[in-house]
Amino acid sequence: LQNLDLSCTNCGVKGAKAALTSGGLTTLRLFNNRLGTDGFNALSLLLRGGHPSIENLDLGGNDAGEDAVVALLKAIAEEAGESKLAVLEIGGNKFGDEAMAALEELKRVWPLLDVAHDKPVQDAEELLEEGLEELKE
Question: Distances in Å between the alpha carbon of 110 and those of 41, 48, 49, 94, 126?
Fold first, then answer.
């Protein structure tokens, strides 16, 4: 088995961890499994330095908080091993300035890694301030 699609299966963190640690997979899709922040934190521990066999990892649509996205990106950025990871999908999770900074660091370490993500979102207070400033002008 090389490709495993567990999208929308509610596999949970245990299922995601089991899939991630099973040998020989080159593609793993965990899209929309409500893994959330706890799931991303758990998977971060398994993704230090990338992954030895998975080339395409889809973690999109799991509603993880930005801190967990940052932890995941930092874990992958560690140069601990021979990573085959070529595509990482993380859209549909919180992505702001901190995540963008972690992504930039990851791209310095693994420049060929293609990361699909949402655009950074400004917080509501920042947007309101900018809008008020424009109105004043």
Answer: 21, 13, 10, 22, 32
